[in-house]
Protein: Ribonuclease H
Organism: Photobacterium carnosum
Amino acid sequence: MAKKYYVVWSGREPGIYSDWASCKQQVDKFAGARYKSFPTQAEAVTAFGKPAQISGSSPQFKKTSAKRTTASKGSLTSEQVHALTADVKIFTDGGCDPNPGKAGSGLALYRNNQLSELWYGLYEPMGTNNTAELNALHQALILAEKVLAQGSAVAVFCDSKYSIQCITQWAITWQKNGWKKAGGEIKNLALIQQMFTRYQALKSQLMIHHVNGHVGIEGNELADRMSILAVDTKVVDFCLYQPPYDLPALLALRAG
């Protein structure tokens, strides 16, 4: 049976579920339940972000005193990120100051929506923002590979459309054309080839989602701070930032 994803707009806990049993727990005998199955996670995410498509309102989207983040077309909001049912969520970011200039990469890894690990490094004295973003996404794929091998579900969130498109779309054509593109050089080619090979092996189990940077998504903000920490400390290796994690202090670090 083909895998399905279930969107619950109105239930005990609105969100996106990867199996019927979990969905049923939210809607069974729940007055006014609103839910629907979708064949792909991407369709479920899109549908969940449009509660106006169904009658009634969802408690997930009631107004609160906090400012609600918004996303450009095809990008996830903080609500959608939180609602995705993945055991592990990895946020990536790259920073460069100036561009080109001193570059570094950062990651924030969450387990069950709780911050678990922060990573930073891959400093380059004369890098670019695109290279730093690719490096961060590459490290996320390496971590995702390990998580998937342990039997856990994982989702990756990246604020670089360039990086995502390089390995999920453009590299397919570039490979068919002998790793050449019309119009000139493929920059960061060796890195993209490594990433593409790894992504091809993982793509049936892994979704890479785009989020907007600096819109208040905690994981993205922390990955950003880690990338700038890499720039400031000039750490070449990719290192685990040692806990405990003081979130207010971390978020107060210099942003990229």
Summary: The chain has two domains: 5-48, 78-252. The two ends are 45 Å apart (CA to CA).
